[in-house]
UniProtKB/TrEMBL annotation:
Keyword Oxidoreductase on entry: no
Domain annotation Flavin reductase like: ranges: 24-183
UniProt keyword annotations, A-Z: Flavoprotein, FMN
UniProt-recorded name of the protein: Flavin oxidoreductase
Alphabetized InterPro entries for the sequence: Flavin_Rdtase-like_dom, Split_barrel_FMN-bd
Record has Transmembrane as a keyword: no
Recorded family membership: Belongs to the flavoredoxin family.
One of the Pfam families matching this protein, by short name: Flavin_Reduct
SMART domains (alphabetical): Flavin_Reduct
Protein source organism: Brumimicrobium oceani
Cofactor: FMN
Domain of life: Bacteria
Organism phylogeny: Bacteria, Pseudomonadati, Bacteroidota, Flavobacteriia, Flavobacteriales
GO molecular function: FMN binding; oxidoreductase activity, acting on the CH-NH group of donors, NAD or NADP as acceptor
């Protein structure tokens, strides 16, 4: 193994450093965030920074990068207060990756990547039709992160559309059975496979493995 110091990291080529640092946090969720501005123009962009923030109340968030260029997703959320989070599957991962291209504001990534949009229950923002897990959110807060000029965008979960076949009796939702992929770095996509699900850990009790159908 090799040891890399912060001084060496700072001396790396920018692209090399970007690739390396983006791999350090491990396998991340890959999601498409859908928005629509007040003129009806839809937008779709892939994010690898979506996180769970709490279940009571249900909150999710993502990291918005610095506004050094136009950020159509972020601007639409600020304008309308609504957005969607859509899981990425193996079937559409190439199209999902293509949404990271810098399209013009008047160009919808849905159209440019041939990903069909859909609307659910009059929710303002568009969902990805082929996504097996669709989440509609209302903007709750935007928290600046001064150390690198990013922002944490927090949304309240307003609706969820999922396949009940993969929803277990205790509320656990199986993702790997649906072909949902993860990613590392900025351009690598991975298939996920569950290797175990276990009981709540307590100091004086051995772990027990849950059955697949729990």
């Amino acid at each position: 193994m090799t040891t890399i110091t912060s001084e060496q990291i700072n001396d790396f080529d920018k692209r090399y450093r970007t690739n390396l640092i983006n791999c350090l946090s491990g396998i991340k969720s890959m999601n498409l965030i859908g928005t629509k501005n007040t003129s009806g123009q839809t937008n779709l962009a892939i994010f690898n920074s979506v996180i769970h923030l709490g279940a009571h109340p249900p909150l999710m968030g993502f990291i918005q990068r610095p506004a050094t260029v136009e950020r159509h997703t972020f601007e639409n959320i600020q304008e309308t207060k609504y957005f969607t989070i859509n899981s990425v599957t193996k079937e559409v991962h190439k199209q999902a990756h293509q949404t990271s291209a810098r399209y013009e504001r008047a160009e919808s990534e849905f159209d440019e990547t041939s990903l069909e949009s859909t609307f659910i229950n009059d929710f303002h923002a568009p969902f990805v039709a082929k996504s097996p897990l669709k989440i509609g959110l209302e903007l709750a807060d935007i928290i600046p992160i001064p150390v690198n000029n990013t922002q944490l965008v927090i949304g309240k979960v307003k609706l969820i559309q999922l396949n009940e076949e993969f929803l277990k009796e205790d509320g656990f939702l199986s993702l790997h059975d649906q072909g949902i992929v993860g990613g590392t770095g900025l351009d690598s996509y991975l298939s996920a496979k569950e290797i175990g699900r276990y009981s709540y850990a307590k100091p004086d009790l051995p772990l027990s493995k849950y059955s697949h159908n729990r």
